[in-house]
Design brief:
This protein is α/β, with parallel strands linked by helices. It contains 16 helices and 13 strands. Strands 6-7-8-3-9-10 form a six-stranded mixed sheet, with helices on both faces. It has a four-stranded antiparallel sheet with strand order 2-1-4-5, with helices on both faces. A three-stranded mixed sheet has the order 11-12-13.
């Protein structure tokens, strides 16, 4: 299956003559050395990521890791130093100015951290902006915008102005605006990080609820691991502009490949994040204490079992048995690997 978006050998070097130092980056020169020796900044280093249609790809890392630089390459707000960016198999580096503008208008929409709403326009007008740019009739703009405002819980606020809304409500307008554009791909750059924790959780739940139906291809940038693990179908972890590990979030949590990632995941509430399917074993004969859903988290099973480690459950998915889980194995899964922080090295 052709990925919706492919990044192949992507490099971005910031500086006055990026091409002159590209060979150093390709030879493995570190970000620190490139800056000290050549006064250029390594933004991205040999990024190879495939983003599948209908999935949420979360790109996470600490400040300066390159995650916001990466997402801005997808619609060429930033031009790469080297590499390929393919959307539906088309190399967007080869698009003309007109084709690039059409792609930005029709194929991709963006949700920003700072909302980016126009203060002098109503909520309805802000939500309809993409269709306005596309040249749709006023009636079509308003009908489509109203539909998505209703879906994100803002029915009745269409004639308000952004200053009359809370931060969470303003971000809902941003999501409605992205959905009104009817684009295949949604780019979300730290979209929820400016929100209060409870509102942020509500927005995450809203996004997941909409995604069940809409199956958009979403690229979501965050520095928060809990948010990443909650939202991601595919998780990409960056450090100093390079991919340290990528894959299914549960797999990364169970088998971090690098001390940097071990340190990241060491403080996570594993019972809340890990799913039963990630720690189950092949099913065997015998009696079970009950059936559990493969996609439930371990916290729910601990509550069901009352903490009794002698119990054994049959794991079900779509009405069929897919494995079993011994509560003793669950307890083992709650203990993370020894983190690099225990040896005195901290990354956050």
């Amino acid at each position: 299956m052709t990925p919706k978006v492919s990044l192949r050998g992507l490099y971005k070097i910031f500086g006055s003559n990026d091409q002159s130092v590209l060979h150093h980056a390709k030879a493995g020169m570190s970000k620190e050395t490139l800056l000290l020796s050549h006064q250029h900044v390594m933004g991205l280093k040999d990024i190879n990521v495939e983003m599948q249609a209908g999935e949420i790809t979360v790109v996470m890392g600490l400040s300066g890791s390159g995650k916001s630089t990466l997402i801005r390459h997808l619609n060429r707000l930033i031009e790469p130093t080297d590499g390929e960016i393919l959307v539906d198999g088309v190399d967007i580096m080869k698009l003309s100015t007109l084709e690039l503008r059409q792609m930005r208008q029709n194929k991709m929409s963006m949700v920003f951290q700072k909302f980016a709403l126009l203060p002098h326009r109503t909520v309805l007008q802000n939500a309809a902006m993409a269709l306005n740019i596309q040249g749709a009739t006023t009636s079509d703009q308003e009908d489509e915008a109203q539909k998505w405002l209703d879906r994100v819980g803002l029915g009745g606020f269409e004639n308000h102005y952004p200053s009359q809304l809370s931060g969470g409500m303003q971000q809902r307008v941003g999501i409605a605006r992205a959905l009104t554009s009817n684009s295949d791909i949604m780019l979300m750059d730290e979209a929820f990080s400016a929100l209060d924790p409870l509102i942020r959780t509500d927005m995450q739940d809203l996004l997941l609820e909409l995604q069940i139906e809409l199956k958009k291809t979403i690229v979501f940038i965050t520095h928060d691991l809990d948010e990443a693990l909650k939202l991601a179908d595919h998780l990409v972890i960056l450090k100093d502009g390079a991919v340290i590990q990528q894959g299914e979030p549960q797999s990364i949590l169970m088998a971090p490949s690098d001390p940097y990632i071990e340190d990241f995941v060491s403080d996570i509430n594993r019972a809340r994040v890990l799913r039963i399917r990630s720690v189950m074993q092949n099913i065997t004969e015998g009696k079970f204490s009950g059936d559990v859903n493969a996609n439930d988290n371990l916290e729910s099973l601990i509550a069901t079992s009352g903490g009794d480690t002698s119990l054994r459950y049959r794991v079900m998915e779509n009405g069929k048995p897919v494995g079993e889980l011994d509560m003793r194995e669950l307890v083992k899964a709650l203990v993370p690997r020894i983190s690099s922080s225990e040896t005195g090295t901290r990354y956050h």
